[in-house]
């Protein structure tokens, strides 16, 4: 039961991740460098935890290690995407993972695709079509901002990384999360160098108390503690149930952004969000029925 509650609450917590992240950004206006600050804290917190568990039972092949690092890269793209794009859109694009996972299973691993997985592809693509279109039929429904593209790419990379982690890595959660955070930090630095800093800077003297509090809260609560707990729950729950539980992030993220973010959230976007959630259920049902192997 503890693993179930962790698998439910950690994604829900990440559903409001954009709130402290944007709060911090409003005080520093550093763009992608905001993520570097919080990830440095996350890595520093994880280092002694991972060191204490360095001899714990577990193993990972080279593919498993690279996959764990790639998972961190995916989360960095997702995090930066939340700063540069519409919150609900970025979250929905990230949760295109069932579609990517099915394609990886079919074309990369040769896994047979059941009718439930074809339904997941159809529902997922339709949902994203509605979220991106949002009543505008003047052109193709493609991601419009760099944040949208980062959200889409993060979901693809997470599907690849989680596939390798599931098949080739069995590390202690603390060790796994340290590698995860290191991959995220490397990607954050590279992305920050590519994107630079915003031209607009916050007015007035910086509130160092607010900045330090936000950096510590995000780095410790979200990146260090919650992800370590989530990786612990992953080893105790089957992929089908886990996939369903993770949809709490989409629900909480969509509701919180609709209520608290000054961003448009149309009925079409709400319908598209629901279809993407349903696609995740179809993917989980496909795994539960035993017709194919989940890799997402």
Automatic annotation (TrEMBL):
The chain crosses the membrane at residues 31-51, 63-84, 90-109, 116-134, 146-165, 177-196, 208-230, 242-261, 267-286. It is a multi-pass membrane protein. InterPro entries: Diverse_Substrate_Transporter, EamA_dom, EmrE-like. It is found in: Cell membrane. GO terms for cellular component: plasma membrane. Residues 2-132, 146-279 form the EamA domain. The keyword Hydrolase does not apply. Pfam families: EamA (PF00892). Keywords: Cell membrane, Membrane, Transmembrane, Transmembrane helix. This is DMT family transporter.
């Amino acid at each position: 039961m503890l693993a179930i509650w962790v698998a439910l609450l950690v994604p829900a917590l990440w559903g409001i991740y954009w709130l402290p992240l944007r709060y911090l950004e409003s005080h520093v206006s550093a763009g992608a460098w905001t993520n570097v600050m919080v990830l440095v804290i996350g890595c520093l917190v994880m280092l002694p935890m991972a060191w204490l568990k360095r001899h714990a039972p577990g193993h990972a092949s080279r593919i498993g290690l690279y996959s764990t690092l790639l998972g961190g890269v995916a989360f960095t793209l997702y995090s930066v995407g939340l700063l540069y794009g519409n919150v609900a859109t970025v979250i929905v694009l990230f949760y295109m993972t069932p579609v990517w996972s099915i394609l990886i299973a079919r074309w990369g691993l040769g896994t047979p695709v059941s009718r439930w997985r074809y339904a997941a592809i159809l529902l997922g693509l339709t949902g994203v079509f509605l979220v991106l279109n949002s009543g505008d039929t003047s052109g193709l429904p493609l991601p419009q901002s760099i944040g949208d593209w980062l959200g889409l790419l993060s979901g693809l990379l997470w599907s690849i990384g989680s596939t390798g982690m599931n098949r080739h890595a069995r590390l202690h959660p603390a060790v796994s999360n340290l590698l995860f955070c290191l991959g995220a930090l490397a990607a954050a630095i590279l992305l920050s160098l590519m994107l630079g800093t915003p031209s607009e800077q916050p007015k007035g003297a910086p509130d160092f108390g607010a900045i330090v509090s936000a950096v510590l809260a995000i780095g410790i609560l979200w990146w260090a503690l919650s992800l370590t707990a989530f990786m612990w729950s992953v080893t105790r729950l089957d992929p089908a149930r886990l996939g369903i539980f993770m949809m709490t992030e989409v629900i909480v993220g969509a509701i919180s952004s609709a209520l608290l973010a000054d961003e448009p959230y149309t009925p079409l976007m709400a319908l598209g969000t629901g279809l993407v959630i349903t696609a995740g259920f179809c993917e989980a049902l496909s795994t539960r029925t035993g017709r194919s192997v989940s890799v997402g």
